[in-house]
Fold this sequence. Notes:
Blueprint: H1 4-7, H2 16-24, E1 33-35, H3 38-50, H4 64-69, H5 72-84, E2 91-96, H6 98-103, E3 113-114, E4 117-123, H7 132-147, E5 158-162, H8 167-180, E6 184-188, H9 193-199, E7 204-207, H10 213-221, E8 225-227, H11 233-247, H12 252-272, E9 280-283, H13 289-298, E10 305-307, H14 317-325, E11 329-331, H15 336-346, E12 350-353, H16 355-363, E13 368-370, H17 371-376, H18 382-398, H19 400-412
Parallel strand pairs: 1-2, 2-4, 5-6, 5-7, 7-8, 9-10, 9-12, 10-11, 12-13
Antiparallel strand pairs: 3-4
Amino acid sequence: MENMGCSKLHPQSMCPAFGGLRVLMRIDGTQVCMAADQGCLYGLTFVSHFYVARRSIVSPELMNVQISGGTMIDDLRRTIEAIAEDPSVRFIPVVSTCVAETAGIAEELLPKRVGNAEVLLVRLPAFQIRTHPEAKDVAVSSLVRRFGAFDHPKREKSLVVLGEIFPVDAMMIGGVLQRIGVQSVITLPGADLDDYAQAGRASACAVLHPFYERTASLFESAGMKIVRGNPIGANATAQWIERIGEALDLDMEIVRQVAEEEKQKAKQVMAGFGHLEGSVIVAGYEGNELPLVRLLLEAGLDVPYASTSIARTPLGEEDHQLLSTLGTEVRYRKYLEEDEEAVLRHRPDLVIGTTALDSFVKEQGIPAIYYTNNISARPIFFASGAASVLGMIAGIIAKKDVYRKMKEYFAES
Length: 413
């Protein structure tokens, strides 16, 4: 394992089109037209059927003959027109991946509307976009730029909540925002094109995930106030609620009262676990890892190392500074080999990581769980989120000796 961090052999994220498709295909009335070679189309069809409720991708046959022969644009136009014959289709995103982008797609030669359907080119080549979370930002910003009603009057006390989150978290956020006086909440990525239109009329945007740089910049350039942070743990929850109040010029007496109530609820949850002890490494590729680390540190756990596939961004700088001050080594644009090296160096009680890392960790006799299935698939915000996450982690750490015994048993076999 010596010099493991120098080899950097493994890809650290799915194809970026994976993230973009998750945003685009969940919009009602959408039929994706993909400009990609057959290998990409085959692989990404998994996303459309597994993650997007069995919805298909439509694509012209883009092989070497079409790409090198210069007929790609004509083939795309014919495919778009065929899709638009279905009156239920309201939106046709043309998703272009590496081969089509390399060949060159002239956006001006594609229609903007055919029949009842809006047409939008969304460029998602892996040579330009490093990770699938950042591709979500490309997709959302493309949608907002095209459909956002920025030329309409702003709605007072209206907020965009930006980030792909667990449904229960969305309900909790909505309930708290209503209590402090927010009159309208638009959650992006959304399931309706009108969500993207109405987002352009909001007064502020709460950016929950730091990789939404393009979208946040677009909103800010339109005069919208940007709220950073997450309602995770006790301290950050209260701070986030107060920032929303300030951004929307709400009644701050009511805002502070709600903020204090939610802070105390989260504190009570964490106190209910006693003094959590143990060392945890967090190493994901979804781009929302650092707020989780804040929660673990606030609950009393030690997090010596955390990594993420996205780049360091101004939107995540507050988390970075706090984590660094509290002793967590934060690694951006990480590689699997660096994560494995950190596991051997720190020998934690639990790793919350990617599938490849988890396999390696379990071979060491250390508990490991998959970040996406165990963190992104459960609530994490406010007191209820703290209870869900910390309850799971406390239970796993309590059984850490089981992993050691299994390793010893198979080593002796």
